[in-house]
């Protein structure tokens, strides 16, 4: 029985040594993986000049879209070809050109009850403006 106990104890020590060895291997693999991950991040990091170039390119694209948006904001919502030139009072929306005269006289009971196409408020007066882009 003593021999069996010594044999079991030897196996236990051997298994503990194997577990310690496996833990050390795992720790070494994790350290290697961490180093590889760090190296990969440093490789993928773009140069400052590349970042600046990308930002400038994106800024140019955004400025171009803003300018085209601004031009579309000045276009009549009815005829879609002329520049807006009428302000509605009291809501102050400026979304139509002089084609608004014919539009309102034909679509709103002879022009008596005119509503703004943006906010649907009652338009008391249509004011023609000149030089809208200046």
UniProtKB/TrEMBL annotation:
Protein name, UniProt field: RING-type domain-containing protein
Key words of the record: Metal-binding, Zinc, Zinc-finger
A Pfam family annotated for this chain is zf-C3HC4_3
Query: Would you say which domain of life the source belongs to?
Result: Eukaryota
RING-type domain location, by residue?
76-120
Q: Which residues form a coiled coil?
A: none
* The keyword Cytoplasm is assigned to this record: no
Leader sequence range is: none
> Whose protein is this, by species?
Brassica rapa subsp. trilocularis
């Amino acid at each position: 029985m003593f021999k069996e106990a010594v044999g079991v104890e030897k196996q236990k020590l051997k298994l503990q040594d194997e577990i310690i060895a496996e833990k050390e291997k795992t720790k070494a693999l994790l350290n290697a993986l961490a180093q590889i991950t760090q190296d990969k991040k440093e490789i993928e990091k773009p140069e400052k000049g590349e970042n600046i170039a990308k930002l400038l390119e994106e800024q140019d694209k955004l400025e171009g879209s803003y300018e085209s948006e601004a031009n579309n904001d000045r276009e009549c919502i009815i005829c879609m070809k002329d520049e807006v030139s009428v302000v509605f009072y009291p809501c102050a929306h400026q979304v139509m050109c002089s084609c608004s005269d014919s539009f309102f006289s034909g679509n709103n009971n002879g022009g008596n009850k005119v509503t703004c196409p943006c906010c649907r408020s009652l338009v008391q007066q249509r004011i023609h403006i000149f030089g809208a882009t200046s």
